[in-house]
Amino acid sequence: DVQLQAFGGGVVQTGGSLRLSCADSGFTFDGHVTGWFRQAPGKGREGVACISDSGGPSTWFPDSVKGRFTISSDGAWNAVYLQMNDLKPEDTAVYYCATNSRTAGSRCDGYWYGMDAWGRGTQVTVSS
Questions:
Q1: Which of 99, 89, 92, 87 is nearest to 122 (CA)?
Q2: For residues 48 and 37, is the Cβ–Cβ distance under 8 A?
Q3: Residue of 111, 126, 3, 101 whose CA lies nearest to 47
Q4: pLDDT of 27-77, one tens digit each?
Q5: 46 contact partners, CB below 8 Å, separation of at least 6
């Protein structure tokens, strides 16, 4: 089974930056839709970034983070990163990474299908 590990959260002031990492020792993300999600207290889970290299590189971001967050992988697709810049208090949440580990070949389009492998969350707190 794929067991993702997400880490890199912390406390940062408004306007600061954090970089989250996601990896599993025995899984490569190559060709699999992989994303970052977040859940703030009392709110539903929200997808904040997607990456896939199936049929060429594709990424997706919702308007709430577009221009501030970027998603990338290492060259071997062993890890996926979420770079968060210009953080705001409303970005405070538990962040999770997830991947569709069973199916390859999809691209990022804002819809999430078959995200079956999830990492434990990492807390991001943005102070005002």
A1: 92
A2: yes
A3: 111
A4: 999 999 999 999 999 999 999 999 999 888 899 999 999 999 999 999 899
A5: 37, 38, 39, 62, 64, 93
* Integer Cα distance of 109 and 70 in angstroms: 15
Q: Please give the Cα distance from 47 to 35 (Å, whole number).
A: 7
Tokens describing residue 9: 């959260």
| DSSP one-letter string for 47-82 | EEEEEE-TTS-EEE--TTTTTTEEEEE-TTSSEEEE
Helical ranges in the chain per DSSP H: none
Which residues are CB-contacts of 18 (< 8 A; sequence separation ≥ 6)?
A: 8, 9, 10, 12, 84, 87, 124
Examine the pLDDT at 110 and tell me if it is beyond 90: no
**pLDDT of 25 strictly over 90:** no
